[in-house]
Design goal:
By secondary structure, the protein is of the alpha+beta class. It has eleven helices and seven strands. It has two domains: 82 residues; 137 residues, Muramoyl-pentapeptide Carboxypeptidase, domain 2, CATH 3.30.1380. The termini are far apart. The structure holds zinc ion.
């Protein structure tokens, strides 16, 4: 009996320890964060690191939390969860798609590519900054409709088999490209990460609100192998929140935000 009490005591103090980093948050944010964090599909070690990061700067987290909540309220699709567990409806088409053609500071690999207006505006700002530093951003793929993604995925299945196709492409409805906020840059090959543009993006994209969706060695978390070329626009405060509090992992941030009460 005594040992049972000891075990129970140890377990509950361990749980309290786990969330200790959240205790300095304002009570309303703390309650939301605690509940949302418990819904994120994450290992104990990474969860502990997130809680620790929040504990080291609770006021910084609270400030960003409010800013990101504001973004979500104004534009719910910007931070919408889309992955191997959560699909978009086939008829989901963003309302504010704009064509990328024209005199912009980036290069397009083909005509007629579409992005949501806020993502296009951020892309223009980012490409201008890159250009000033002598880097040219080549835009290779942007919005894809449900039907187009279906042809992409089915072609990959024919060419490489279903298991491999699932690692490198999304099933229709599960692609961030359907959101109209994802951009593939450059060659869409692993070599891109080591080009001048790839390195510049890796260092600077966050400042403009873009986030690398499928980082290296995170396939167990994201469901996809490393894609050095695939960035999603999530807004500057969300990109900052991801970098400072979510270990730089977009999947953790998006799952966390999706689990917040509406
Ligand atoms: Zn992509």
């Amino acid at each position: 009996m005594l040992s049972l009490i000891f075990v129970l005591g140890a377990a509950s103090s361990c749980a309290a320890q786990k969330n200790k980093g959240l205790s300095a948050l304002p009570p309303d944010i703390r309650a939301q964060a605690e509940s949302a964090l418990s819904s994120v599909h994450i290992g104990d070690a990474d969860r502990g690191r997130i809680v620790e990061a929040i504990g080291n700067d609770p006021s910084g987290f609270a400030l960003l939390f409010r800013e990101v909540r504001d973004v979500m309220k104004k534009d719910p699709d910007l931070l919408r969860r889309v992955d191997k567990s959560v699909a978009l409806p086939a008829n989901f088409v963003p309302a504010d798609l704009v064509v990328l053609d024209g005199a912009f500071p980036y290069v397009v690999s083909k005509k007629g590519m579409l992005l949501r207006a806020p993502a296009r505006d951020a892309l223009v700002r980012m490409a201008e900054a890159a250009k000033k530093e002598g880097r040219t951003l080549v835009v290779s793929s942007t919005y894809r409709s449900y039907d187009y993604q279906k042809t992409v995925f089915e072609r990959n299945v024919r060419e490489m088999g279903k298991a491999e196709a699932e690692r490198v492409s999304a099933q229709p409805g599960m692609s961030q490209h359907q959101l109209g906020t994802a951009v593939d840059f450059g060659s869409i090959t692993d070599e891109f990460g080591d080009t001048a543009a790839g390195r510049w993006l890796s260092a600077n994209a966050g400042k403009f609100g873009f986030s690398l969706s499928f980082p290296k060695d995170m396939e167990a978390v994201t469901g996809y192998r490393w894609e050095s070329w695939h960035y999603r626009y999530i807004s500057p405060p969300a990109a900052e929140m991801q970098a400072r509090f979510f270990l730089g992992i977009q999947q953790y941030l998006i799952e966390f935000l999706a689990a917040l009460p509406h």
